[in-house]
Amino acid sequence: MGFRTLADLDVRGKRVLVRVDFNVPLEKDGRISDDTRIRASLPTIRSILERGGSAVLTSHLGRPKVPDPKASLRVVSERLRELLPGRKVAFAQDCVGPEAERAAAELRPGDVLLLENVRFHPEEEKGDRTFAQKLAKLGDLYVNDAFGSSHRAHASVSGVAEFLPSAAGLLLQAELDAFHRLLEGGSRPFVAILGGAKVSDKIGVVENLIGKVDSLLIGGAMAYAFLRAQGMATGSSKLDEADVPIARAAAEKARAAKTELLLPVDHVVAEKFDAAAPAKTVEGAIPAGWMGLDIGPKTVARYGAAIRGAKRIVWNGPMGVFEFDRFAEGTRAVARAVAESGAFSFVGGGDSVAAVTKLGYAEKVSHISTGGGASLELLEGKELPGIACLARWANAPRGGAAKPSR
Predict the structure, then answer these.
(1) Can you say whether residue 127 is alpha, beta or left, with left for phi > 0 and alpha for psi between -120 and 50 degrees?
(2) What is the third-level CATH fold of 185-370?
(3) Which are the catalytic amino acids?
(4) Which of 16, 182, 187, 385 has its CA 20 to 30 A from that of 138?
(5) Phi-psi category of residue 275: left, alpha or beta, with phi > 0 → left and psi -120 to 50 → alpha
(6) Which helix (H) or strand (E) holds 170?
(7) Helix (H) or strand (E) segment spanning residue 113
(8) pLDDT category, 405, cuts 50, 70, 90?
(9) pLDDT per residue over 109-131, tens digit each?
C-alpha cells in the first residue's frame, strides 16, 4: 500500500499532530518503569522540530473508562522534558476542547505539546468522527507514528487522516519496511518460530505463513494442541480441546504446502505450575499428572539447527513459561540462536523481545517490533486501519497542502 512519509511533508511553520504510542508501563508509585516507547518516538519528534515545525502529541495510556489520575500522561510529559533538553514541552489537561486548542495555538516552531490521555473520552475507542475532527483542529498536518496502535480503528489512529494531510512517521515507516523485507525478501530458507498459549490466538498467523515459510517451529502451550492432534499424550499440560482440530487442520495444510512443521520431541515437565516445582525432562508423550512447561534439550538442538541455517527469521512467542527461570531455557536458547544466525531476523511479542533484550542480543537482531497485536495482524495478512487511512493521501503533492484522493 502506498503512503507518504514524514519526509514528504513540509512541516516548517506547521503544527504536526502526531499519534505516538506512550502506553508505557508504570510502577505502583506512578513512575515510568520502562521508557522504550517514548524513546522510540524521538526520531520523528526531533525531525519535526529540527525542520521548523511544532509537535502536538496524542496517545493513550492504559485502558481507563473514565478520566483517572493514575492513567494521566503528565508523567510522560516530565520524562519528555528530560529527553528533549532545551525544548519547550507543554502539557494540556485535555486532548480536545478550548484548553487544548489554546495550548496548540500558543506553540512556536520547535515546541512540543503533549495532550492528555485520549482514552479519557469514550469517543476515542468508538472511532467517533466528530471526536477525530476535534483532534484535527489542533494540527495542520497529521503523522501516525504509533505502530503498536495501528490495528485499532480509533479516532486518533485512523480517524484524523480524513481531515488533515497525513503521512507515516519514522517509527511506523521502519516497522513497515522491516515487514516488507521479512515477507518479500526472497532469500531462503525462511523460518517462522511461534509460541504462546493458544493455537486459536495465532491460527491466522500460522495459516498465512504456511506456504510462505520453509519451516514452522512451534513452542509454548500451543505445541500441545498439535501434539494431541497427532495422538500424543500431553498429560496435564495447558490445552484447550477446541484447539486440537484447528491444529490438525493446520498441520494438514502445512503438509500439503510442503512447509516443514517442527514440534517438540522432548519436554521439561513439572507436576504443577509453580516456579519452584521439581522438574524433569521427558521424551515423547508427557505422563499423566505432569505438565509441559518448556521445550527439552533435544528440541532446542533441533530448532537451533533450523534457525542457524535460515536467511530470514520471524519469531513471536516464548517456547515455555519464560517468567519462571527454571522453565526459560528453551526461550533463551532460541533467542541465542536467532541472534547468532546471521539471518534477517524479526522479533515481536513481549516475551520474545524480553528474552533477546535480557540476554543482551537485542543489537544482534535485525528488527525488534514495537507492536505485539499490530505485528501479529500484519503477519496474518490483515490491513491495519492506522495504515490504510494514510492511503488517501498517497498521491498528494509533497508538502501536505492538498486534498486527499478518494
Answers:
(1) left
(2) Rossmann fold (3.40.50)
(3) 37, 198, 350, 373
(4) 385
(5) alpha
(6) helix 170-184
(7) strand 112-115
(8) very low
(9) 999 999 999 999 999 999 999 99
Distance CA 25, CA 75 (A): 11
pLDDT tens figures, 257-278: 999 999 999 999 999 999 999 9
* Alpha carbons 157 and 168: distance in angstroms, whole number: 11
pTM of the complete model: 0.89
CATH code of the domain made up of 6-174+384-393: 3.40.50.1260
Radius of gyration for the alpha carbons in the chain, expressed in angstroms and rounded: 23
The residues pairing with 280 across neighbouring beta strands, listed in sequence order, are: 269
What are the φ and ψ backbone dihedral angles of 266, each rounded to 5 degrees?
-145, 165
Mean pLDDT of 316-335: 93
180: Cβ contacts below 8 Å, ≥ 6 apart: none
CA distance to 47, 100, 108, 109, 149, per residue, from 105 (Å) = 20, 9, 8, 11, 27
Q: Where are the domains of the chain?
A: 6-174+384-393, 185-370
State how far the Cα of 395 lies from the Cα of 36, in Å rounded to an integer. 33
